[in-house]
Amino acid sequence: MVFKKMLSAFGVGGPSVDTVLANPNTRPGLTLDGQVNIVGGDALSNIEQITVGLVTRVEIEGGDTEFAGIMEFQRMAVSGPLQLAPKQQLSIPFQLPVPWETPITDVYGQRLHGMTMGLRTELAIARAVDKSDLDQVNVHPLPVHERILEAFQRLGFRFKHADLERGHIRGSQQTLPFYQEIEFFAAPQYAQAVTEVELTFVTSPHGVEVILECDKRGGFLSAGHDAFGRYTVSHADADRVDWTQVVDGWLRETTSRYGSLRASGFGGPQKYGHGHGHRGHGMGGMVAGAALGVAGGLIAGELIGDAFEGDFGGDDFGGDFE
């Protein structure tokens, strides 16, 4: 019996956990429904807590280097303490709210290249090795997101890459400790002024803040620079407006007004903790970036990177939205 307890402490012959999602596809503001299935081990187990949480890969800047880490950004307990008899089977249903700011991972049924999202289940066992499970989650755009993305496609922009940056966009209603950047190669009609455009959505129950960052080309005697634009739209506007015309107007306004804004000391929505040099000036930006630190379930990428690589299949979404 003592030997069995010792083995159990090292995770041998302990309980197992497997989470089954009713549907791995969801959208910001909805829920993920599923059940946690547990099977007891060789001996009685004291379970301290069972939790589920959304995890994703985030770009993190540390000193002069940048690396990818795994961050948990939504967490919920599905059970408190309980005893699990040997070989006992238990199924616990749950509904996990998906935050409105959850980044988009899939468009038109294909994975956005660079995006990873999963639901992690943790079984905390008293005096033993904890058990976990990881399931892929697919986050699809809301209608207003989809219309804006479609407008970029119709205007001739080609999707390049998407990632998450740890930090905060100054002046936004952002609540998560990171933001998504969806990057496009410039369409031909904008190529004289812009090389790339980065699109960020900050979504709430009421609408979406749309932040554009345009990488402007330099001229013969001038260096290139970034131009920022910030626009607010309502969810109700999704099918009410000509989004191609709206997005074209945003892009032309953003790139043309940069000079006057810069002259007046306004450089656009600065991004704290951003890995490409667009962070807030002075101590404010440094403190905001440092305060995020290891809070919010941040784990060094290599610790559970293998789980992501091994468990998450599917093709990356690397071309146009087609």
Beta-sheet strand percentage?
35-45%
The topology string of helices and strands comes to HEEEEEEEEEEEEHEEEEEEHHEHEHE
Poorly predicted residue ranges: 1-11, 218-224, 259-268, 272-322
Number of helices: 6
Count of strand segments = 21
- Averaged pLDDT: 79
Overall, the morphology is elongated
The proportion of residues forming helix, as a percent range, comes to 10-25%
Task: Describe the largest sheet.
Answer: 6 strands, antiparallel
Span of the ends, CA to CA: 60 Å
SS content category: alpha+beta
Instruction: Tell me the Rg in angstroms.
Output: 23 Å
Task: Write up this protein.
The protein is 19% helix and 43% strand. The protein has 322 residues and is α+β, with helices and mostly antiparallel strands. Strand 10 and strand 11 form a beta hairpin.
In short:
19% of the residues lie in helices and 43% in strands. It is built from six helices and 21 strands.
Distinctive features:
322 residues, alpha+beta, 6-stranded antiparallel sheet, 5-stranded antiparallel sheet, 19% helix, elongated, disordered C terminus
